[in-house]
Amino acid sequence: MYVNVLIETKVKSNNMMFTYHASKDVCDNIIGKRVLVPFSSRIVEGFVIEFTSLPTNYEAKDILKVIDDEPVLNEELINIGKYMSDKYLCPLIYTYQAMLPKALKANHKVNDKVKTLTYVKLNPFLDVSNVKIKSQIEIISLLKKNKNLLKSDIKSKSSLKKLIEKGIVTEYKKEIYRDINATETKKEVILTKEQNEISSRIKQSLGISKVYLLYGVTGSGKTEVYIDVVKKVIEQGKTSIILVPEISLTPQITARFKGVFKDKIAILHSSLSDGERYDEFRKIKRGEVKVVIGARSAIFAPLKNIGIIIIDEEHSESYKQENNPRYNTLDIALKRSKTHNCPVILGSATPTIESFARAKKGYYNYLELCQRVNKKPLPKVEIVDMKNEIRKGNKIFSSLLINKIEDRLNKKEQIMLLINRRGYSNYLTCPNCGYVFKCPNCDITLTYHKTSGMMRCHYCGYAEYKKSVCPNCKETDIRQIGSGTEKIQEEIKEIFTDAKVVRMDADTTSKKGSHNKIINDFNEGKYDILVGTQMIAKGLNFPNVTLVGVINGDSSLNIPNFRSSERTFSLLDQVIGRSGRALKAGEAIIQTYNPDHYSIVFASKHDYKNFFVREMLVRKKLNYPPYCFITLIKISSKDFNYGINEAKKISMFLKNNLSSKTSILGPSIASVLKINNNYNFQVILKYKKDDKLYDTLNELIKIYEGNYKVKIELDFDPINL
């Protein structure tokens, strides 16, 4: 028998499959397994994708070893990989590597990631009456009472060894799963009339492939609807996938689901160790769980008989992968929905413009939760014009925000402060000559992190200690410009000396379990004020938070992207929604230099629908999604001149081969010219339909397949331009 094995090579090709001979004794159930094969002068791992016939004039080498007892890729995942490769024009091997935990990737190494414990038990067929040594008798007596014990629990190791040598005691290994210590929140799910109507509509379409957009204001109880629907799915003997955008959201939603479904849940996200992800993956594959909760990659969970797929906070950009394969989670969800004949629920208080437009057109089924569960009003929001505050000498905090924080602290209520930038200051500069400290590898300023005393590049990771002398003019008066979470935390502590302040950003949550600890500690009232980046804006539920303050509420408006207004509205509306979610009324303060911008004004009024209408006018006028599709061609090279010349050639090639109705913008310099010593350029395609698109882009990939001086990457429906 002959099989096609997919391996990873340095050759830039979408499909590196090679034919190998598989002997009869290994052919059974071999599709989807990893194998060791000879390739050139090396031995590499690969995935067996399909049976094939032997090509003419081709001498097939033998598979050296089958690594897996069971396939790591089932038929559905193999088909999804091919679908992704075709849709995103990326190498097939990348699609499978993206699906699997590290222990199961084809990575040229064979790793045994199974965790086992060694147990001991009595051999029932041997006479123990001749044993006279006291310590051995004690072990035998212990094993008669307990039957099976951990070998490590036996104190007298030498006596145990003697009993094992005599065959009186036998030892054996037992596989165990690593404990990820997920907390459990027990809360009875009682649906409101509005929630029950929504849930009933969804349950009526179980078994049908369709998409629901569930638009619900913050605090309207979308999670309760999810739980009720999943209960019905499990009753039908089916499984469910629940996706959340941020790792920080996973503990709270997991705790809610675990309180209802107990051990029927598996968790998948990048904060788990390699071993933990491996264990959770195997639980799923073995059919030991009914519900999978996780971030983006959990969409590939090898569940059988899926009854529903839920994408919570569907507006989040984290559902789009930014490196190969650049897949959109929704695309994969729709693919699996058709395979399993199950509905997909997209839930959000601030849906993407594209999703809401599809719902308005009837492509998605529209559902709406209009009010909060406890019928409390949404938070009262005040906009503060920081131009006026600057004149008063208030550079970071407005007088109003300071007064409101003091009021909440006196009432023993909690506060959340959002600034969507980590670090202490945005950059350091010399006021004498204007020198700015930049990353030597990237065209970006270094962010100062006071806690570590380092200036860091948030693109390539370069870091150096803070300089006190300008390298250009030797001036010692180095200025710190801008504010990040570290500075906000420090300033708040100086103003409110008795307040307990905690920070939540990428720096404070890098250690395992840190997300969960910060969330739990704040929820238990160990801290009065939570300062954080956008990771605190979505999905979190803190009953005692009654005030949200937004520092620099217009910072995302300054990003050169057609989605900047949408991002601003979404971030503001989401973080405002963290306030007043329980019995106490909530308030929010938005500090901004653009108080009249429509995204900020509509966010302050919790008015998504009118924001949508206004934003659609802008998108239509400028011909941006949802009025067209966009494909981004990224061109990078270590040589600036070579890169820009190739970008011009690519632009001309596209103009000569694509439909005249397709707009070709560029080449232009990317939003960041240099990253990791590579110069970046881009060409943007805008189109409604172009039958020549895929053939042309495939041809472009082939042209640059062997060119290592320039790198070409394709991004369909990009998040960032």
What are the main properties of this structure?
alpha/beta, GIY-YIG endonuclease, globular
What topology emerges from the helices and strands here?
Layout: E1 2-7, E2 17-21, H1 24-27, E3 34-39, E4 42-52, E5 61-62, E6 65-66, H2 75-88, H3 92-99, E7 115-122, H4 134-146, E8 149-150, H5 157-166, E9 169-176, H6 193-204, E10 211-216, H7 222-235, E11 239-243, H8 250-261, E12 265-268, H9 274-285, E13 291-294, E14 306-312, H10 329-340, E15 344-348, H11 353-361, E16 365-369, E17 380-385, H12 386-391, H13 399-410, E18 414-418, E19 427-429, E20 447-449, E21 454-456, E22 463-465, E23 479-481, H14 485-495, E24 501-504, H15 514-523, E25 529-532, E26 545-550, H16 564-576, E27 587-592, H17 598-604, H18 608-622, E28 629-637, H19 640-657, E29 663-675, E30 678-687, H20 693-703, E31 711-716
Parallel strand pairs: 2-5, 10-15, 10-16, 11-13, 11-14, 12-13, 14-15, 17-27, 18-25, 18-26, 24-25, 26-27
Antiparallel strand pairs: 1-2, 1-4, 3-4, 3-6, 7-8, 7-9, 19-23, 20-21, 21-22, 28-30, 28-31, 29-30
Largest sheet: 7 strands, parallel
The whole-number mean of residue pLDDT values reads 90
Note the overall shape. globular
Question: For the CA atoms, what is the radius of gyration?
Answer: 29 Å
Q: Could you describe the 3D structure shown?
A:
With 721 residues, the chain is of the alpha/beta class. It has 20 helices and 31 strands. A seven-stranded parallel β-sheet has the order 12-13-11-14-15-10-16, sandwiched between helices. Strands 5-2-1-4-3-6 form a six-stranded mixed β-sheet, with no helix packed on it. Strand 24 (501-504), helix 15 and strand 25 form a beta-alpha-beta unit. It is globular, with a radius of gyration of 29 Å. The model has no long low-confidence stretch (mean pLDDT 90).
